[in-house]
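Q: What would this chain look like folded?
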Amino acid sequence: MTIRAHLYDAHGKDRDVDLASESIGDVDDRRLLWIDLDDRDPGDLKRLKDTLDLEERIIAQLGSDGRRARLLRFPDRIVITLGAIDQREDTLSRVELDVIVGRNLIVTVHDGRLSALEDFKAQLRDEQGLGVLAAGAFLAALVDAVLTGYFREIDQIERSVEALDQIALRRHESDEFLPTVVTLRRQVALIRRALVPNRDALTPISRPDFEVHEDLVTAWPGTLERLERAIDAIEKARELLVGSFDIYLGRAAQRSNDVMKTLTLISAIALPGIVTAGIMGMNFQLRFFDKPSNFWIVIGAMVVLAAVVLLFARWRRWI
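A: My prediction, written as structure tokens:
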């Protein structure tokens, strides 16, 4: 079964409930019911519709493909669609999370396991008295858990960028740098595309016209601030990645300069010997060539000239 329901009861002990046997009408201001669907099966959505008497528009929103972050308003409930991120088969993916907020009622709908919700449930496992919590406040806590997932992935990207800086500063060029940069760039783009549209879903809560729903959701100032901090963090991570690539390009240019400097120095050292050999190889007769021992004088002159060039380069601090 993909439908799970948990009742936070300030009158007694929190417990899992069966929607078939539990009456939704028994939920009061000291009881908060959380229904979670980890699949968008049409049968489960219909069962949810019949149990909660949901509007067709809500069911259409929950079951449609390509949902975007948005907020739907109804007289006695609101529906928020958020973009979350999660690791799916070792790949970072965007996961759509729909949240229905009613009086003393929270419904979450998503595809498969969502780490942010699992962590949130673990945090609440030993908490007592959550039944007195308003559904709007519970929604704010859910949103914070989703944003925490973003911060966790952003922190991991920043750690990877720090490791990239070490690779970029290595003496020898590494084949793993560019593939890692491309992977991180895709992750940053994915996180940004999933995170930024959440403004469309959360900003309306703080507008004056939303006061008619204050009995359901009250604007929580920290939520929008935390969203903006997450957006700033991913922008900073992208800048760090660009900076790491600049370090890599600078180090590659330095390695190229070192190679060219070495080749130039070798050419400069060999040039006097090459010139001397060319002159001595010219086709004319001199008494100097009559003595075979003069060969070693020429070789010695070549060595001395090469040493002079090397010492001069050292004196000028070229090497």
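The longest strand covers residues 91-102.
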